[in-house]
Amino acid sequence: MKKTIQINLAGSIFHIDDDAYERLREYLTAVEHRFAATPDGREIIHDLELRMSELFTERLKPQREVINLEDVDEVLEILGKPHEMGGKKQEDTSWQSTSYSGGRRHRRMYRDPDDKPIGGVSSGLAYYFNTDPLLIRILFIIALFLGFGLLLYIVLWIALPLAQTPEQIREMRTGSAYF
Fold first, then answer.
1. Torsions phi, psi of 13, nearest 5?
2. How many angstroms separate the CA atoms of 68 and 71, rounded?
3. Using one digit for the tens of pLDDT, what is the confidence trace for 101-133?
C-alpha cells in the first residue's frame, strides 16, 4: 500500500504517490531557484506547471487516477533539466539529488558570512570539511606559530568567495544549492 498526496498544479487537482511527489517537489524547487532572479520567473514557473498538468492529464487514463514515479520521470524527461532551461546552459547540476540523477552532489568552498570573527575562512573551511570551526581556528593559530598561518589565512581570504546568496549558503552548508 502506498500513500498518496493531493496536489494542485496550475489549478488542476491530481493524486500522486508520495515518492513521485518528492521527485516532483525537488524538481519544482530547483526550477523556482533557477528562475527566482529573472523578471519573468513567476510566469515561466506557471507556464511550466501548466505544461506539467497537461502531460499528467494525458498519462492518466480513465481507469487510473494516481500519478506514479514513472509518470513523473517521463514528464521531467520531456521538460528537461532546470539548469538547461532559459537558453544559456549552466554547468551547475548540483540541484539533482542522488535519487533523481544517480549523480554526486558537490560541495563548494565559500567564506561563511554568518560566522566570521575575521573573514569567515575558518567556518567556511569547517563546512567544507564537515568539522567544527573551532578546530580549524586552532589549526590556524598553530600554523601562525609555525610561521605560515597568517599568509595562508590571507591567501584563503582572497581566494575564497563570500557566500552571499541563499543558494550559495545552502551549497556551502549542504553540498547542494537547492535543498
1. -95, 135
2. 5
3. 434 445 678 887 777 778 788 888 888 888 888
Q: How many helices (H) and strands (E) does the chain have?
A: 8, 3
Closest CA to 178 of 103, 85, 82, 84: 82
Paired strand residues for 15: 6, 66
5/15 Cα distance (integer angstroms)? 6
Q: How far apart are the C-alpha atoms of 142 and 21, rounded to whole Å?
A: 50
> What pLDDT was estimated at residue 102?
39
What is the C-alpha to C-alpha distance for residues 84 and 34, in angstroms, rounded to an integer?
10
54-88 confidence digits (pLDDT tens): 888 888 877 788 888 888 888 888 888 877 666 44
User: How far apart, in whole angstroms, are the C-alpha atoms of residue 32 and residue 30?
Assistant: 5
